[in-house]
Design brief:
5 helices; 2 strands; mainly alpha; about 100 residues; about 60% helix; two-stranded antiparallel ribbon
């Protein structure tokens, strides 16, 4: 993760994942635990996955995916890097 992305996580993450999100996350967990999610997925699959396929297509057409396809490919398995506290990430050394 870049220093920029890490900084973004610190300053933006708490604004997105906060107390307002908790009730909806609990609702989703309840739906998983009580079988509501599984029943909906089974029904979707039995119907030929029409909604799933539409959502997948919308995801494929999302701007972030278009940008990702245009970005240069990165190594799928980068070498682990050791970062020393207080050290700029660009100065980190590969551990291999």
């Amino acid at each position: 993760m870049s220093d920029t992305a890490e900084y973004g996580d610190y300053v933006s993450g708490p604004r997105i994942i906060n107390g307002a999100v908790r009730p909806e996350m609990k609702k989703v967990l309840t739906e998983i635990q009580d079988g509501t999610f599984a029943a909906a997925w089974i029904a979707e699959t039995e119907a030929g996955q029409p909604n799933f396929k539409k959502m997948r297509e919308r995801g494929r057409d999302h701007q972030i995916e278009k940008c990702r396809r245009l970005a240069p490919r990165q190594d799928a398995f980068p070498q682990p890097v050791e970062v020393v506290d207080g050290q700029p990430q660009a100065a980190a050394k590969n551990k291999g």
